[in-house]
Amino acid sequence: MTQRTALVTGGTGGIGSAIVRYLAGQGHRVVTNYRDAAKAETWRQAMAADGIEVTMVPGDVSDPQASEAMIRAIEEKCGPVEILVNNAGITRDSTFHKMNYQQWMDVVNTNLNACFNVTRPVIEGMRARKWGRIVQISSINGQKGQYGQANYAAAKAGMHGFTISLAQENAKFGITVNTVSPGYVGTDMVMAVPEEVRAKIVAQIPVGRLGKPEEIAHAVAFLTGEETSWITGANLAINGGHYMGW
Ligand code: NDP
């Protein structure tokens, strides 16, 4: 297999860590960003203890200048980014009539605008080298909407609009661009939901359980492989059958 430089944003989180492990396990040079250096070092050491070496660079993906600096730092340390997984994300839930501007902007900046901030500094290099793999981690709630998540659902749906436009523009340059839309996965983000609400969610999932981060990582590894050069502009829903729409 060809060893590639892979950037997984938000790689220290629940799903991100699984993606990092999977891509590193395939032999790629894996990089992720951090905002809190002490927290990042603890995470890096835990990964190293499992034999997973990860390059860490500072970077807030909601900030365009910080993202550009992050990409240049990665290029210096590991060479150009060939696989990009736009995974960093947050929620700031509220019903819309009570939502404030900050909650809206924080979620749109971190989930959607980050796709611009991080992808823009890598895309020209991918086009010049005629190879690239870009995956957005969206959400089931970008597909079906969700009570209390107008900000998150709008941002996540926007990520797929970004995917299908970028896929068209870059198909002739050996670059595939796809979306993975996970359903409810048992990470901190979902475990923060009150238990009785979680039980109601699980009751709606035909497979009868929350997803595992590894199940999302497996799909990302598939979409970023050498063999999947004819899959572009797709949205891969991985949700235990919770939503079977587009
Ligand atoms: P976590 O909260 O576990 O991890 C989120 C990661 O994103 C952390 O590493 C966090 O870093 C990073 N991050 C957040 N904001 C920024 C920022 N501004 N700049 C850089 N990094 C940032 O979330 P999950 O692993 O559960 O989710 C990963 C992705 O999957 C998200 O996009 C989420 O929306 C999506 N998703 C998750 C689902 C689930 O059920 N868990 C379902 C559907 C989609 P830090 O430690 O610095 O905060």
From TrEMBL:
CDD domains reported for this sequence: BKR_SDR_c
Ubl conjugation found in the keyword field: no
Protein name per the record: Putative acetoacetyl-CoA reductase
Domain Ketoreductase, first and last residues per copy: 4-183
Keyword Methyltransferase annotated: no
GO BP annotation list: monocarboxylic acid metabolic process; poly-hydroxybutyrate biosynthetic process
GO MF annotation: an example: acetoacetyl-CoA reductase activity
GO CC field: cytoplasm
InterPro entries, alphabetized: Acetoacetyl-CoA_reductase (IPR011283), KR_dom (IPR057326), NAD(P)-bd_dom_sf (IPR036291), Sc_DH/Rdtase_CS (IPR020904), SDR (IPR050259), SDR_fam (IPR002347)
UniProt xrefs under Pfam families: adh_short
Keywords tagged on the record: Oxidoreductase
Species assigned in the record: Rhodanobacter fulvus Jip2
SUPFAM superfamilies registered for this protein in UniProt: NAD(P)-binding Rossmann-fold domains
Family: Belongs to the short-chain dehydrogenases/reductases (SDR) family.
Coiled coil: none
